[in-house]
Amino acid sequence: MWTMFQLALHPENQDITRREIHDLTRRDFVPIPMSELNMRTLRKASCTDSFIREVLRMKGDTVNLVRMARKDLQLGDYIVPKGSLVLPLVSLFHWSPRYNEGDPKKLDGMRWVEKQKAASTTDSGHLSFGLSIWTCPGRFMAVAGMF
């Protein structure tokens, strides 16, 4: 839903993604059957994948990272007592210039094409699907469903 909403708001990306999917789903000017539209084909859709990754980055509040402090923790002027639930605001990572070049608060659908970071790839600046041992195992299916 958010991908379609952002495509509507950013028509400059509509032509790019439409053309890319059209080119990937045609063989000798004949549409390929949906059964042949697989992950191998979708991986070639670098512009569409970049747009999806960027939408996920901008819509950072969809991530629900809840952790429990295992010990008392000094955080600036505050102490987080052991056993407290901590809910980091993921958007602050996603919108940080430390992790994202250019204007991180502006949606740039083609931001990830040259960097070759897939929508399902996680890192410190892109927590849409978690990180490390908490990475969502269904992230590949989720991204495929956004195509």
UniProtKB/TrEMBL annotation:
<dbReference type="InterPro" id="IPR036396">
    <property type="entry name" value="Cyt_P450_sf"/>
</dbReference>
<dbReference type="Pfam" id="PF00067">
    <property type="entry name" value="p450"/>
</dbReference>
<protein>
    <submittedName>
        <fullName>Cytochrome P450</fullName>
    </submittedName>
</protein>
<keyword id="KW-0479">Metal-binding</keyword>
<dbReference type="GO" id="GO:0005506">
    <property type="term" value="F:iron ion binding"/>
</dbReference>
<comment type="similarity">
    <text>Belongs to the cytochrome P450 family.</text>
</comment>
<dbReference type="GO" id="GO:0004497">
    <property type="term" value="F:monooxygenase activity"/>
</dbReference>
<keyword id="KW-0408">Iron</keyword>
<dbReference type="InterPro" id="IPR001128">
    <property type="entry name" value="Cyt_P450"/>
</dbReference>
<keyword id="KW-0503">Monooxygenase</keyword>
<keyword id="KW-0560">Oxidoreductase</keyword>
<dbReference type="GO" id="GO:0019748">
    <property type="term" value="P:secondary metabolic process"/>
</dbReference>
<dbReference type="GO" id="GO:0020037">
    <property type="term" value="F:heme binding"/>
</dbReference>
<dbReference type="GO" id="GO:0016705">
    <property type="term" value="F:oxidoreductase activity, acting on paired donors, with incorporation or reduction of molecular oxygen"/>
</dbReference>
